[in-house]
From TrEMBL:
Residues 26-58 are annotated as: Disordered. This is Extracellular solute-binding protein. InterPro entries: Bact_solute-bd_prot1, SBP. The keyword Mitochondrion does not apply. Residues 39-55 have a biased composition (Low complexity). It comes from the Bacteria. Residues 1-20 form the signal peptide. Keywords: Cell membrane, Lipoprotein, Membrane, Palmitate, Signal. It comes from [Clostridium] citroniae WAL-19142.
């Protein structure tokens, strides 16, 4: 975890900001901020009375809890610089933590003491915290600058509590040159995949790059497997699990999803349980492995190591040969329902949804896809051709479905630890399934 205090620019808000507000109303007319009610959102979604700057030169410091993916560290500096230029009276005090390990525990702490003004998590976090009444709704002014798909999994009971800023894709990254040289076709079935694995082993090529020392990676790929073997077939599997209708011990489909980890473990680097992601990605780029089950966060490493590396992406094949590429809404902005500075919070939302130069800078740095209208990253993504193909064939699925059915914090992450123990011989497979079943009460965001 790192904590950063940023010094604000001690200047009055500019006349243009006073007149234009934070974009919460049309026509450039200044609207007074509504009186704040204890526990109420800063402004209802779609309201014509979205909170606006008061026009004073009051300096404001907003607290931000940022749960970061591996691609995200550093974007806070970009945001600070752009904010100082457009809204110099607003300062952000950042608390940046690893989303996979630390974001949920920090949120639990803040639920006791009061949430920060702004939280940056993932779309699935909205399902966890919105039902508790602690999140503010996001005004349509800012939501309308995003793609329609950005609202789908951050809307609860008709109100939208998150602004999805970017997206990741997940699947199997593959070395295009290696596939071409060996005549390997993109696999659609497990038999297709096994033929590539066998050919790799016969030729001394490691089939999969992996870094299982990171249990978050095990948890991530397990949900990838589950999306295509479980949730695409039964979108309510998690609800049925909590109702006692299904279990891990009895579900052949979920057991298969777990067992795919063994397929990778048996066909990856011998030191996968001591290898960091950067080293793993480097060995992939250097041609030591043919494939890696991962997500867009690996692109940053791939291109940093070799900006000419040619890679593609395909869905990990399921048992029925109809896997879809996985899409994950990533950076998602949430606000506190009890913030004392709704005007300033809206200014931050305005900046992030209207400053296209900043958005492209962030997307190019994180190597992620835009969730804002009319904003396209400029970095070269060798896998984009594959993504476009799956999109055209309606073969992309939003993983938020699975993450809402079985939450990450306290469930998926704990199951991943047991899977790691099984792969290393410290637990039996039956132990892993029993442990997953025993966590049923932790599997839902709304208990």
């Amino acid at each position: 975890m790192k904590r950063k205090q940023v010094l604000g620019v001690l200047a009055a808000i500019t006349a243009s900001c006073v007149l234009a507000g934070c974009g919460g109303s049309s026509g450039g007319t200044q609207t007074a901020a509504p009186e704040k009610t204890e526990g109420a959102p800063a402004a209802e979604a779609g309201s014509s009375e979205a909170a606006q700057p008061s026009g004073s030169d009051e300096k404001v410091t907003l607290t931000v809890l940022a749960g970061q993916s591996t691609t995200d560290a550093g974007i806070e500096d970009m945001i600070d610089e752009a904010l100082a230029e457009k809204y110099p009276n607003i300062t952000l005090e950042w608390e940046c933590v690893d989303w996979g390990n630390d974001f949920q525990p920090k949120m639990q702490q803040y639920l006791q003491s009061g949430l920060p003004d702004i939280m940056i998590g993932k779309a699935q976090d909205v399902a966890t915290y919105a039902p508790l009444g602690v999140l503010g709704t996001i005004d349509d002014t800012y939501l309308n600058r995003g793609l329609d798909a950005a609202r789908e999994n951050v809307t609860v009971d008709g109100k939208t509590y998150g602004m999805v800023y970017n997206a990741l894709y997940q699947g199997v990254y593959y070395n295009k040159a290696m596939f071409e040289e060996n005549g390997w076709e993109i696999p659609k079935t497990q038999d297709d995949l096994q033929k590539i694995i066998d050919d790799c082993n016969a030729k001394g090529i490691t089939p999969f790059a992996s870094h299982m020392v990171d249990t978050w990676s095990i948890g991530n790929v397990t949900m990838q497997f589950a999306m295509n073997d479980v949730f695409n077939k039964d979108p309510e599997w998690g609800d049925k699990f909590r109702a006692g209708e299904v279990s891990f011990a009895d579900s052949k489909e979920f057991q298969t999803a777990y067992e795919y980890n063994k397929l990778i473990f048996d066909n990856t680097f011998a030191n996968t349980f001591s290898m960091e992601q950067t080293d793993c990605d480097a060995r992939m780029v250097q041609g030591e492995a043919a494939m890696k089950v991962s997500g867009s966060w690996s692109i940053q490493n791939f291109l940093d190591i070799d900006d000419a590396f040619e890679f593609g992406i395909f869905p990990f094949p399921n048992q029925t040969g109809d896997s879809k590429l996985i899409f994950e809404p990533n950076i998602t902005l949430m606000t506190s329902a009890k913030t004392e500075h709704p005007d300033a919070v809206n200014c931050v939302l305005d900046l992030l949804t209207s400053d296209k130069e900043l958005a492209v800078e962030i997307y190019d740095y994180t190597k992620t896809a835009s969730m804002l209208k009319d904003v396209t990253p400029t970095f070269e993504n060798p896998s984009q051709e594959d993504i476009d193909k799956y999109a055209a064939d309606d073969m992309i699925v939003d993983v938020t479905l699975g993450n809402n059915q079985l939450v990450w914090g306290g469930f998926q992450e704990e199951n991943a630890k047991d899977i790691a123990a099984w792969l290393q011989g410290d637990e039996t497979f039956e132990d892993v399934l029993a442990a997953s079943d025993a966590r049923v009460d932790a599997s839902s965001a709304t208990k």
